[in-house]
Hints:
Elements: E1 2-8, E2 14-19, H1 22-30, E3 43-50, H2 53-63, H3 66-75, H4 77-85
Antiparallel strand pairs: 1-2, 1-3
Amino acid sequence: xxxxxxxxxxxxxxxxxxxxxxxxxxxxxxxxxxxxxxxxxxxxxxxxxxxxxxxxxxxxxxxxxxxxxxxxxxxxxxxxxxxxxxxxxxxx
Length: 92
């Protein structure tokens, strides 16, 4: 399988990545081995699985465009708000 994954960062950005080993790659982010997410408390919020590498790469590339970022934020609006508001429902 090929995965496109999304990490919520403590600067309120969403990191988008591609991997064939989701557990390993998320672990690398969490342990600070990935420079672009180091010290940003990356948290996995969603992933998509694809049978074909070309489909996963195409999806990741689209999500890095302006339109793709806009659609992703709409799609993940509720989960993003949960992280922003915290589990109590009040702004943190």
